[in-house]
Write a structure and sequence with these properties.
Shape: flat
Number of domains: 4
CATH superfamily of the largest domain: Mu homology domain, subdomain B
Strand order of the largest sheet: 11-13-9-8-23-21-16-19-18
Oligomer: single chain
Distance between the termini: 64 Å
Structural class: alpha+beta
Number of helices: 8
């Protein structure tokens, strides 16, 4: 078939939305549409009418018509099938089949028409595919616009907060009559004299806040995003509209307010122990490279707990390199494992993750989890492989343990004879998964045969896991107020995982 045009028109022949698929002058199309009502006969039951040159195939849509104009040489059965699809597309985008609704949804209808017909020929698509193709383009644009506006607002808020901090530092320096302090913790969550509220300064001061709109403060230079329409829509209403359509977009903080992520399971004082391990082990069990690094961060969400002390207990007998932040009292930490500020009258900063203690261990000879792989050559050019794991540090609880074992290239067959947990073959790797490894379930084996293969095909083995127990045996015993030693309720989370663990 050759489809000349698809049109949604009124009974008088007025075209509301029309899409032309072949080269033809506008006057010719308007003439064909104007002739359509004159060819309609009262009481006619057919859904098509022909002239000497073209065929009109139509279907009533309440007070409107879905009209296709084709050549006379086209197959009438295909014409009717195409017409049915067009007639289903129009109600898909128009809730009410009225002239106003069709005009409002003109662009969506044109996009859908282009998905059904290309260069006059019907595409092999159904209604679900048409809906998916049309939404795909608009969905990406909405997400891009929403994320861009959110990033602009967040950047403007950060600039405003930084301007306030600089103004506050200048005022405090002027009151003290000396230079302002630049002591800070760095990018991981810093604090210093400029961000701590001083209890001794009781005089009020007037803070001058920049009143420049956020969009004028943070306007991208050199590049501009594509915008549909002449006016930019408001970001809040746009994001609300996206949510009503089922999309999930990040939320920008309101101007002038600090953005904070609230965790329901976190107390006003929250401690986070995070450890990372980089380990390379040999096939014979020797440790070629071992590096354990850890960080303790403190987050305070209530200003009444700003002046506190954290009591730590270190039961690790290994040569851990411990390092406190320069603002933390080192003597108190060495004497009793206390994390407290040198200047006890100053509080910890609020609503920020503050790194207070780091530890490091290099050259360890005892791995948390030992992997023993024994590939042996078998008859017929294959290999019998036995892999065993054992938990060396029994105080640990490792979850979601995954061993990624390489397989030889080519058409090799793999037969697994014995295993703990579960296994799956993904491409050129055999993935062995164990849900939990702890003191009660600290060993396990995997036996399989690969043919053809050689022993070197099964290395390096990559190991990963997650754990809520700490490798370094450093624990938080309690948190107290710095003034009177009153106990403070606190929460904590522990994360221990390998950045890289290979058996080579």
């Amino acid at each position: 078939m050759v489809l000349i045009a698809a049109t949604v028109c009124t009974k008088s022949g007025k075209a509301l939305v029309s899409r032309q698929f072949v080269e033809m002058t506008k006057a010719r199309i308007e003439g064909l549409l104007a002739a359509f009502p004159k060819l309609m006969t009262a009481g006619r039951q057919h859904t098509f009418v022909e002239t000497e040159s073209v065929r009109y195939v139509y279907q009533p849509l309440d007070k409107l018509y879905m009209l296709l104009i084709t050549t006379k040489a086209s197959n009438i059965l295909e014409d009717l099938e195409t017409l049915r699809l067009f007639s289903r597309v129009v109600p898909e985008y128009c809730q009410h089949l009225t002239e106003t609704e069709v005009l409002n949804q003109a662009f969506n209808l044109l996009f859908a028409f282009d998905e059904i017909v290309a260069l006059g020929y019907r595409e092999s698509v159904n209604l679900a595919q048409v809906r998916s193709f049309v939404e795909m383009d608009s969905h990406e644009e909405k997400i891009y616009q929403a994320v861009r506006q959110t990033q602009e607002r967040e950047a403007a808020n950060r600039m405003r907060e930084r301007a306030k901090e600089l103004q506050r530092e200048k005022l405090e320096a002027a009151k003290r009559g000396g230079p302002r302090s630049n002591m800070s913790y760095g990018s991981s969550g810093g604090f210093g004299s400029s961000s701590m509220s001083s209890a001794s300064s009781a005089e009020p001061y007037v803070e001058k806040v920049n009143t420049t709109p956020a969009r004028e403060q943070q306007r991208p230079s050199g590049r501009s995003a594509m915008k549909l329409g002449s006016k930019s829509t408001d970001a809040d209403s746009f994001v609300s509209r996206l949510r009503s359509e089922g999309d999930t977009v990040p939320t920008a903080a309101a101007p002038g307010k600090e953005k904070e992520v609230v965790h329901k399971d976190h107390n006003d004082v929250h401690l986070r122990f995070e450890e990372r391990l980089n380990l390379t082990a040999g096939r014979d069990g020797d440790v070629q490279h071992y590096e354990l690094s850890g960080l303790l961060t403190l987050r305070i969400s209530n200003e009444q707990f700003g002046r506190i002390r954290v009591h730590l207990d270190n039961k690790d007998t290994r040569a851990l390199q411990l390092q406190t932040h320069p603002n933390v009292d080192k003597e108190a930490f060495r004497a009793g494992g206390l994390i407290a500020l040198k200047q006890s009258q100053r509080p910890f900063p609020l609503h920020s993750d503050v790194g207070v203690l780091k530890w490091r261990l290099q050259g360890g000879d005892k791995t948390p989890l030992s992997i023993n792989c024994w590939p042996s050559e078998a008859a017929g050019g294959g290999c019998d492989v036995n892999i065993e794991f054992e938990l060396e540090q029994t105080h640990l609880v490792l979850t979601d343990v995954v061993l990624n074992i390489p397989l030889p290239s080519g058409n090799s067959s793999v037969v697994v004879h014995q295993w703990e947990g579960s296994y799956s073959q993904k491409g050129r790797s055999l993935v062995w998964s164990i849900p939990v490894i702890d003191e009660e379930h600290k060993t396990g084996t995997l036996e399989f045969t690969v043919n053809p293969a050689v022993p070197n095909d099964f290395f390096p083995i990559n190991v990963s896991w997650t754990s809520e127990t700490s490798n370094a045996m450093i624990k938080a015993m309690k948190v107290t107020q710095a003034d009177d030693g009153t106990p403070v309720d606190f929460s904590q989370e522990i994360s221990f995982h390998p950045d890289s663990y290979e058996v080579v």
